[in-house]
């Protein structure tokens, strides 16, 4: 059976090639064609009369030696060639050869083993994945198939050269001289254009990191390409590509720092003995007060403090100058102000309190705010004690106290209303030898007592209901229940309840 299949396959193969000779011999053209396949970049270039017509992405051998290198010819062109090895008919979407085959006379074969053909897996194109053939996208192989003549030379190589450089030995009229980027003007961190000079009408590409920006040079070779502003120190690379596809050597410039360093100074009061500054990392900073001067360098994060010779009087002028590595300067001046906020202490406030007691500077203006309502506090002694009368508040409410001294310095503090109110005694609705049910404050902890001892605990649900499981308690036992809220307040004990026998479970 195996021998029979081999014989049948050979007959089919023979008949296939016998059906094409006349058509293949009929293809004749005055056009000089060339195909170059560069395995290094998995690209195919099609030339006609020395002109690059188009390039295509291809897939080649999964190892370097599978796809042969050298100069070959297209010796046959087949539409919908069957995949004999897998027994798949031509034109079948499953056919790994696609629907076009251009056979090569590589390694002693005659277009039966190696070819440029389509595929049944478009995602494979561009990869090193084939058994030796050159795969193309089906749409593109049909396009190439319609243009290429039998006998067209095919060069397969692995090279760093451009297609034009590889094709130069086949055509006399190919331009292989790369243009030069003769000048790239200075680019700073304020620039929004890269400008320079190259070959007239060359396509100039600016590469910054992973981003590319392109534009064609004018008839004199001048170019001006818009870019986003870049950080100082960023590398900008420029290349030019002429009409023949030749690419210049890259020319790089580094973005210059032309921006004055940022400089911010924290306000300084008559109580401070230091100047706190934020500026550019590693910038040199000078702090001056009259004839007193101190130099320092900012840390890697840009922050630093300069200790003053002594505390300064309100109204004193302090000058700070920051100078970065590029020599750019920034200057700021600050005036010492009276900014010592009064200290404030607030005595604890509970949900049973009717007043707020505050201790602060004597002579200050004190106000208590609860929600949208204000309650002025009155001085009760000469030592800075104030008291504001307020209505009783709910636990966890926030009370804000604002204190402003004579100089206008403000201190604002808040205090939470403490929960000092015990929850209501739980209501026990049923008690059996297995569980106690009832209602109590939501979220409270339920404790069940018998003979003065705690025998079980549970938690009240959000709907105020609780079920506490109990064990080893006989019917007739008298229990009571308490509820403890989140603040630790414990309710009065519930009314006594006598344990009843649990109903027996019935099994059907």
From TrEMBL:
Gene3D superfamilies reported in the protein's UniProt record: Immunoglobulins, L,D-transpeptidase catalytic domain-like
Region (Disordered): 489-508
Active-site residues, as the UniProt record annotates them: 117, 133
Pfam families assigned to the protein according to its UniProt record, in alphabetical order: Big_6, YkuD
Domain L,D-TPase catalytic: 33-157
Swiss-Prot/TrEMBL keywords: Cell shape, Cell wall biogenesis/degradation, Peptidoglycan synthesis, Signal, Transferase
Signal sequence region: 1-23
Pathway: Cell wall biogenesis; peptidoglycan biosynthesis
Protein name, per record: L,D-TPase catalytic domain-containing protein
Organism of derivation: Neobacillus kokaensis
Classification of source organism: Bacteria, Bacillati, Bacillota, Bacilli, Bacillales
């Amino acid at each position: 059976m195996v021998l029979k299949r081999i014989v049948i396959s050979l007959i089919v193969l023979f008949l296939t090639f016998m059906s094409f000779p006349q058509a293949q011999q009929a293809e004749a053209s005055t056009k000089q064609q060339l195909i170059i396949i560069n395995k290094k970049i998995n690209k195919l270039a099609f030339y006609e009369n020395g002109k690059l017509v188009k390039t295509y992405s291809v897939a080649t051998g999964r190892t370097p030696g599978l796809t042969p290198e050298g100069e070959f010819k297209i010796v046959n062109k087949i539409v919908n060639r069957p995949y004999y090895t897998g027994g798949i008919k031509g034109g079948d979407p499953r056919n790994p050869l696609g629907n076009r085959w251009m056979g090569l006379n590589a390694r002693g074969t005659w277009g039966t083993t190696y070819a440029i053909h389509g595929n049944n897996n478009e995602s494979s194109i561009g990869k090193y994945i084939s058994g030796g053939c050159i795969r193309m996208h089906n749409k593109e192989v049909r396009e190439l198939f319609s243009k290429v003549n039998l006998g067209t030379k095919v060069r397969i190589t692995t090279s760093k050269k451009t297609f034009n450089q590889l094709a130069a030995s086949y055509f006399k009229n190919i331009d292989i001289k790369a243009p030069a980027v003769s000048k790239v003007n200075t680019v700073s961190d304020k620039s929004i254009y890269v400008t320079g000079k190259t070959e007239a009408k060359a396509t100039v590409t600016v590469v910054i990191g992973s981003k590319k920006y392109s534009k064609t040079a004018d008839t004199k070779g001048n170019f001006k390409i818009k870019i986003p502003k870049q950080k100082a120190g960023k590398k900008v690379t420029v290349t030019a590509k002429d009409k023949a596809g030749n690419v210049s050597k890259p020319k790089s410039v580094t973005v210059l720092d032309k921006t004055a360093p940022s400089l911010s100074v924290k306000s300084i009061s008559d109580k401070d003995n230091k100047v706190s500054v934020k500026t550019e990392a590693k910038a040199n900073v000078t702090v001056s007060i009259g004839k007193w001067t101190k130099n320092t360098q900012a840390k890697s994060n840009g922050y630093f403090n300069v200790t003053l010779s002594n505390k300064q009087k309100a109204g004193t002028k302090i000058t700070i100058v920051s100078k970065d590595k590029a020599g750019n300067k920034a200057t700021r001046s600050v005036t010492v102000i009276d900014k010592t906020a009064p200290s404030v202490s607030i005595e604890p406030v509970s949900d049973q309190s009717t007043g707020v007691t505050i201790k602060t500077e004597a002579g200050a203006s004190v106000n208590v705010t609860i929600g949208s309502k204000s309650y002025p506090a009155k001085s009760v002694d000469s030592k800075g004690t104030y008291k504001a009368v307020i209505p009783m508040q709910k636990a966890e409410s926030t009370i804000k106290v604002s204190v402003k001294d004579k100089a206008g310095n403000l201190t604002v503090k808040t205090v939470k209303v403490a929960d000092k109110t015990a929850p209501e005694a739980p209501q026990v609705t049923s008690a059996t030898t297995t569980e106690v049910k009832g209602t109590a404050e939501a979220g409270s902890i339920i404790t069940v007592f018998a003979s003065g001892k705690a025998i079980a605990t549970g938690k009240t649900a959000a709907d105020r209901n609780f079920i506490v499981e109990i064990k080893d308690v006989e019917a007739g036992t008298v229990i009571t229940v308490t509820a403890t809220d989140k603040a630790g307040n414990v309710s009065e004990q519930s009314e006594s309840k006598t344990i009843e026998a649990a109903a027996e479970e019935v099994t059907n």
